[in-house]
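re: ur question from yesterday

yeah so i grabbed the chain u mentioned. its 328 aa long if i counted rite. heres the sequnce exactly as i have it in my notes:
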Amino acid sequence: MEKMNLRNRFLTAAFLFLLVGSIPPIAAQDFPNRPVHIVVPWPPSGNVDITARTVAPALGDALGQQVVVDNRPGAGGTIGSGQVAKASPDGYTLLLGSSGTISSAPAVFKTIPYDPLKDFVAVGAIQYVPMVLTAAPKTPAANYAEFLAYVKAKGAPVSVASAGSGSSNHLAIELLIRQAKLPLLHVPYKGSGPAITDLLGSQVETMMDQLTASIEHIRNGKLKALAVTSLARSPLLPNVPTLDESGVKGYEAGTYTGIFAPSATPPAVLAKLHASLRKALASDGVKERYRAMGADVWEMSQPAFDAYVRADVEKWRKVAREANIVVE
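ran it thru and got these structure tokens back, copy pasting raw so excuse formatting
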């Protein structure tokens, strides 16, 4: 009799275990049942902040819950990013990540409060923006071939500005120096704005910057676009060749934005977030707002975006190591 009771209790326990295991976790099944927060690790009004605030309402509509944008700036975007890395992995705290915080900062900062590959999982891509190599009004080069001739004739390093030491722009310059074997002198500024001002005044000869920051000066003829850094030409500047087709084979450097979540976030939650993000980005209003910024929505699956980010992180770590770029 006792053996029978033990057997019955065992079978009951086994049945309950299988039954519970077959039910989706409540957190994933009901997600989201409260507002979702997207952390922007930069101050308000910058490109990353505008990117977040453009997609947030449409993402909220797709999820059926409010999406709140939280600005948590500091230390080159690493403070807010570090906070998301340590947040509960339930899908309610997300990061508007970018090449600056996910790829560049981990490559150049001596210490950083997160590991981009271990602490985050890529939910979905939003934008990809190539950079553009531009020349100042007084620099005697209107295309990349003329730029090469100028570099050779000058007999001294040609100055090239960036938005700052350790920035995505700086790393792109170092990659160009190595792949094209060019004698360039990096001139770091405290932001893209001051660098463009000096470039317009021909106080620096060239600059590597995001296309979105330079495109209006290119369109009005104040700056000369020598080449873009994507593998394919930008639809915003279809007549400007890429560095790859100009002879720097395989050269690619661009900035991206996307949504990231803490790494242990349940797969079902990630799938819902990704699907909702793609729906939000398909909105005509969102697309038009991004085009006005000089950017296009980046159509990419979650696995493809994750693979791109992982390769990008390793790529810039290698460049920073070879160029000995360290930011304290």
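noticed a couple things. The chain is about 45% helix and 20% strand. also The first strand starts at residue 36 and ends at 40.
anyway ttyl
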